[in-house]
């Protein structure tokens, strides 16, 4: 059996690390995510086994030679979407933005680097099977595009209570609790174009 690819998050901000880890596990369920509070912790854990490093800007600046050699695998965590806070030659991700925008940024990074599953292992069978009915997929697509229940009912010409039932069934079948997780699922499975969210 093929081992799951591993991602490292290197940041001293424990809360930010925990949140990012959860989002990454939703975006890339086939990955294993390890977290490190310092560069020393990463260094003592076979750092070259990781396919990506999500690293805080201060740790990157203090250990630039290491990350410069691994530039294509490194994503710098910034606190501003402003271009001046980015470090040239590195991909960056602003972690100081609303959840839906952060999810969108992660999905864009993932699609840019791994379009069509490039450089990624195949999805486990259970994750690649169609779990939802065609109608549930239609409802899900409209949910992640930001429509409210009434608008979905009108668009699909079904009752409001039917939309609510579909919504509950979708969340139950997929085991999700948030629209962000649903958005990630919908984009990753090709049900919704990232430009429509």
Structure overview:
With 197 residues, the protein is an alpha/beta fold. The chain contains ten helices and five strands. Strands 2-1-3-4-5 form a five-stranded parallel sheet. Helix 5 runs parallel beside helix 10, helix 7 packs across helix 10 (179-188) and helix 8 (149-156) packs across helix 9. The radius of gyration is 19 Å and the shape is elongated. Residues 120-127 have low confidence and may be disordered.
What is the strand and helix layout of this fold?
Blueprint: E1 6-10, H1 14-27, E2 32-36, H2 39-43, E3 50-56, H3 57-62, H4 64-69, E4 74-78, E5 91-94, H5 99-114, H6 125-128, H7 134-144, H8 149-156, H9 160-174, H10 179-188
Parallel strand pairs: 1-2, 1-3, 3-4, 4-5
Q: How far apart are the first and last residues' alpha carbons, in Å?
A: 36 Å
Q: What is the residue-mean pLDDT, rounded to a whole number?
A: 83
Structural class: alpha/beta
The string of secondary-structure elements, in order, is EHEHEHHEEHHHHHH
- Fraction of residues in H or I helices: 40-55%
User: Mind telling me the C-alpha Rg?
Assistant: 19 Å
Count of helical stretches: 10
The largest pleated sheet is described as: 5 strands, parallel
Which regions are unreliable across 5 or more consecutive residues at pLDDT < 50?
Answer: 120-127
Strands, count: 5
Query: For the largest beta sheet, what order do the strands appear in spatially?
Result: 2-1-3-4-5
């Amino acid at each position: 059996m093929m081992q799951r690819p591993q991602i490292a998050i290197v940041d001293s901000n424990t809360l930010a690390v925990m949140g990012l880890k959860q989002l990454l596990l939703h975006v890339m369920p086939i990955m294993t995510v390890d977290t490190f509070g310092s560069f020393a912790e990463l260094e003592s854990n076979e750092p070259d086994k990781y396919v990506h490093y999500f690293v805080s800007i201060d740790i990157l600046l203090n250990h630039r030679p290491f990350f410069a050699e691994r530039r294509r695998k490194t994503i710098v965590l910034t606190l501003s979407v402003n271009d001046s806070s980015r470090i040239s030659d590195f991909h960056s991700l602003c972690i100081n933005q609303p959840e839906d925008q952060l999810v969108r940024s992660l999905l864009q990074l993932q699609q840019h680097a791994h379009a069509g599953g490039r450089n990624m292992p195949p999805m486990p069978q259970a994750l690649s099977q169609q779990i939802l009915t065609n109608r549930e997929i239609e409802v899900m697509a409209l949910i992640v595009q930001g429509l409210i229940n009434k608008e979905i009912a009108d668009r699909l010409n079904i009752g409001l209570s039917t939309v609510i039932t579909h919504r509950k069934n979708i969340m139950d079948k997929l085991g999700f609790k948030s629209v962000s997780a649903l958005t990630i699922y919908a984009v990753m499975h090709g049900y919704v174009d990232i430009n429509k969210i």
